[in-house]
Amino acid sequence: MTGMGSASLSAGGLAGPFYHRLGLEAVALVLVALVLIAARYFLFSQVRSTTHVRVAGSADDGGLLAHEPLPRAILRWGFGLLWILDGLLQMQRAMPTQLLSQVIEPASQGSPHWLVQLVQLGVDAWNRHPLWAATGAVWIQLAIGLWLLLAKSGRFAKVGYAMAVGWGLLVWVQGESMGQILAPGASWLFGAPGAVLFYTVAAATLFAPWRFWARDRLPRWLLWALGAELVGFGILQGWPGRGFYQNGISQMVAQMAQTPQPSWIAGPMRDVAGLLHGGVAAAVNGGVAVVLVAVGVAFLTRRLLWSAFGVLSVLSLATWWFVQDFGFLGGVGTDPNSMIPGLLLALAGVVGSTRVAEARDAVSERAWWPSDVGVAGRLFGVWTVAAALMGLGPLVYAALNQTTSSALALAASDTPFSIDRPVPSFTLLDQYGRPVSIDQFRGKRIVLTNLDPVCTFDCPLIAQELRSADLALPPSVRAQTVFVAVAVNPVIHSVQALQIFDARENLAGLSNWYYLTSPSLARLEHVWQTLGFGVSMPLDGVMVQHEDLSFVIGPHLTERFLVPSDPSLNSAIATSISSLYVHLVEEV
User: What is the pTM of this model?
Assistant: First the structure.
């Protein structure tokens, strides 16, 4: 059997509800902002802040310089802006439906089983509530970015840094599969060890007292870590037998050039891909390996730092364009990939190692806020907390709520049509050979569909959706609900065939399940016509084409909803369509 209404998850299937939810949440944040602005002018107009300054090096100075060290400012501002960019990229219309299939699931391929299972936990949570998860990811990333830009010292700042570390680790593990470092073919060129790991490292360094930057301690550690990373990936890049000396890089460049983007970007990429063959590809790969090791050694020994950084910048920007396609062009990219974050870390390390920071006056780290932000800064901080909660709330809900929403079902099929027409009267035999009339279900809710008893593709999936929906109904609702299917095979439609189908799909034990047929093909065809089930005669004697239609019928035998197609493409959508049936049954 081939379902004539086969559906797929389109990029825009949830775009409307996604942007609607984002819009409502944005309005809520605007209202919060207006309240805070009013509070600033009407309640705190007379507030004057005082600054208590202490000398750096005193007994409990907390180690914060009044003038933030430049390398630290580079990380805070650079990654703050990157978090905001990522939040804006998270607003792409395809995020609720295609982030998993185009980004997260492909990234986990080749990783160890335990990591794939860990990633699957996040996939399942997203599939259960894609709208909640997608909008939550937007606001949490925007909030982190604003938090980094706003708060440079004090306990409030550390809360934001902690949130950046926690969210970064979560995304690194479940969104990037640990940067694919445990998968075959891991390469610095392709994004390993993962862009979000750099975000996390940057946020973690912001916890350190400012005196660590002034005394060249933290920049030195940062350069050592980056140097070890580059040497390690340089060795892996140059290791024979990993495929990079053949056409690995060329294939990646050619693949990236095929994504939708301006021709002035894609054209040079295609030209480069055409050159990277044979000896040229091997030479380029060997050159990349040598450069990575050389820059890594320079960072480890802290020699020729600015020259090494310049070489790394040229290689990184070339890789960002020709290999990574700027990270977010085409598809559903959620960040600019690893090159820019890696360069920011390297820049902070080099600046901190070559620039002598002066220890000036210091303020206490014990205060929640630095003294120079004023009332407006504090109120903006409150607004940032509201934005963070706007993100955390939906994400926690998606993770903890095991009930699947119907969002994916609506994305994979047309929105169920609201209708209001009486069900045509008919009488057929059930799977046990007993006469059953649709009229005998007056006073009950009915889900009515059609199934081919010998189908091995769509129909078993539909049957499982119906079974899941039946078992998910509250007991009081289930007692007043029946699920009815009409056999739609012109050749094989005996009671015995229906019983075999029920046994195979574990439907026989459902007391409110009715699978109807008739020994008379003419009577069956009459029912198909009156219900609107389009059925094509089989060409090979067995396989049948029929429309996958379902009706949700109210207690007065009035058709209330028509579900026009079957979205049974994967287990997540199947679970979602089951939830859709539950929702519609409870509504009639």
Answer: 0.78
